[in-house]
Amino acid sequence: MRRSGKTLADAVSEIREAVDFLRYYAAQIAGLHNPAHGIFTAISPWNFPLAIFTGQIAAALAAGNGVLAKPAEQTPLIAHHAVALMHRAGVPVASLQLLPGDGATVGAALTSDPRVAGVVFTGSTETAQMIRRAMAEHLSPTAPLIAETGGLNAMVVDSTALPEQAVRDILASAFQSAGQRCSALRCLYLQEDIAEPVLEMLKGAMDELSLGDPASISTDVGPVIDADAAAPISAHIARAKSENRLIKQLAAPAEGSFIGPAMIRVGAIADLGQEIFGPVLHVATFPANGLDRVVAQINETGYGLTFGLHSRIASRIESVAGQVHAGNAYVNRNQIGAVVGSQPFGGEGLSGTGPKAGGPEYLARFTAAPVVESASPSKPYSSYYKTLENDLEAVSLNVAAQNSMLLPGPTGETNQLSLYSREPVLCLGPGYDVAKAQAAEVTRLGGYGLALDGLPDPDWLTRLERFSGVVWWGSAEAGRPYARALAARKGAILPLIGALDKGHVVLERQLCIDTTASGGNAALLAGEALSIAPR
Question: Per-residue pLDDT tens for 393-414?
Fold first, then answer.
């Protein structure tokens, strides 16, 4: 509460999450069979200065790595206390070192030292891309980067939703933690038929929020982290007000870095341009027949972290959940507060590299599966860029879930983790025989591998589309041009892979449904029951 402005409820939840990470990863140690990478740099954010900090460290240590932990410069005292507790509990000092400081000096050094074998990072997409470029220049070209980054997260509320439940969940998703969660709701889509009454309810519910000292049990919304964070949020709200798009804003305390929660009208999620990391909710409307277009607009942002849906039509829930490109989707509940082991957390596209934190595939990325280097004869795939481009486009992707598993959770909640094949993985050997073995392993893990014998020009990787990564088992010297080319790409971060694991070839998408929130027999809505279908 003192160091990062957390409310009492948020602080208690964060301590619980930190403990959950420790227990969850400890329980998975017995199932690990591959060796550790070596030394991991762990760079954590200020918005979860204990939970994410602890989770990164716990995963790296559980897999046998040493850890250089760089906390956010705004919250080093929380990190210091956490590390002191870990040392007291028996973690060797030589295995866990705390290195506080700013990103430009300490962070840059820790992501550019060749003695570092991998990096785990939570923060902005832009910073993750900078880290990737530094790693490509200085670390092993196949050193893993596990990045969880930002999102332009949306929620859709259709005309069948229960307004009281929707308003409750919108309020929590947008304004809890002063909107300073990467999972927070940024753009609300309301079906036109219910938009005005729901907005009126939202305005009234906002009036009940209490802003003030986060140490007070009555406080709902505390300050944003500091004045530097507050300034661009205030400017964004002021611009919307000048354009007559500000629907409502609450008054904020004069002292401290408070931002009054605000609602702003937009035409679509594309109007946001970038993530506004604070208590600002953008609202758009859509016609009854426009849901598919809304989902397409959300996918077109390139971000894929969280998504929310309020609806009581089962077929609509199934359809939308299958279309939206988001790592975590929530139905008839809020879209924040993922629970370790029940809702593994992490996005896709611009929102992260995977695998999901607190999920079954996470620890494998901290280990080094054996690779087989070979000097087998060359058998070039093609010297023509267009041939490769066409073949990538021709690969038929499995758009349905390969398999799904139910995860534990409370009564009245369903948690399902589904695996989808990523776009093709380029397998570059070296040598065609090794490339074929790599492609076979990609296929075994559930993906699509395309066996090549290197590339005539590594810079092709800056321009090619429709692939999700590159496997390379050769020398660091020969692999570095590939790593540099991948790091130079715009958009999603794509890896040069040495140690293959399942998370490299499949996407994990988690669906959480509050099954108590239907408010009645959903089969009777919109003609779902055949007996009431129009004739």
Answer: 877 555 456 789 999 999 999 9
Q: Please give the Cα distance from 417 to 345 (Å, whole number).
A: 11
CA-CA distances (angstroms) from residue 36 to 7, 89, 276, 372?
38, 22, 38, 17
Annotated catalytic residue within 14, 17, 148, 348: 148
62 close to 366: Cβ distance less than 8 angstroms: yes
**Class of the domain covering 8-149:** alpha beta
Task: Report pTM.
Answer: 0.94
17, 182, 187, 512: the catalytic one is: 182
Sheet containing strand 449-451, edge to edge, reads 449-451, 425-427, 469-471, 496-497
Segment (H or E) for 306: strand 306-310
Indicate if 182 belongs to the active site.
yes
What residues does CATH 3.40.605.10 cover in the chain? 8-149
pLDDT digits 0-9 by tens, 468-517: 999 999 999 999 999 999 999 999 999 999 999 999 999 999 999 999 87
Range(s) of the chain covered by CATH 3.40.309.10: 154-332+517-532
- Give the residue among 110, 96, 105 at the shortest CA–CA distance from 143: 110
Phi first, then psi: what are they for 40, rounded to 5°?
Answer: -105, 135
CATH superfamily for domain 154-332+517-532: Aldehyde Dehydrogenase; Chain A, domain 2 (3.40.309.10)
Query: How deeply is 88 buried, as exposed, middle or buried, from its count of CB atoms within 10 A (0-12, 13-18, 19+)?
Result: exposed
Whether residue 148 lies in the annotated active site? yes
